[in-house]
Amino acid sequence: MVRVRTSEAAHQHELLSKSDAERLAELMHALASPVRLRILSALRGGPITVTELTERLGLGQTTVSNHLRLLRHLSLVDGDRQGRHIYYSLFDEHVVDLLDDAVGHVVHLPRIGERGAGGLSI
Hints:
By secondary structure, this protein is mostly helical. It contains 6 helices and 2 strands, in the order αααααββα.
């Protein structure tokens, strides 16, 4: 589980500790995957099963399951078993905020090879 302290001091540009930086790097590494970002964006609409995710994303079940396992390990995604199915959802509002902030930042960046502002839809 990745947890970076969010004390007031940390928000005042305090240098990250080595362990916090390592945990944050692990989280950022997980977010560096387009497939995982698409899974997170799909989960913004509410709980969904692996089968529904595979259909929506056009990916294989093994691929989606492997990515979900990592996202669960990092506390970005949670799973709720209901009978034979597990419904996956974003872990909490911090994950929604993280995704929204990242998308908001990318919207302001120029696209590679273009001079205008970039766009991104989630």
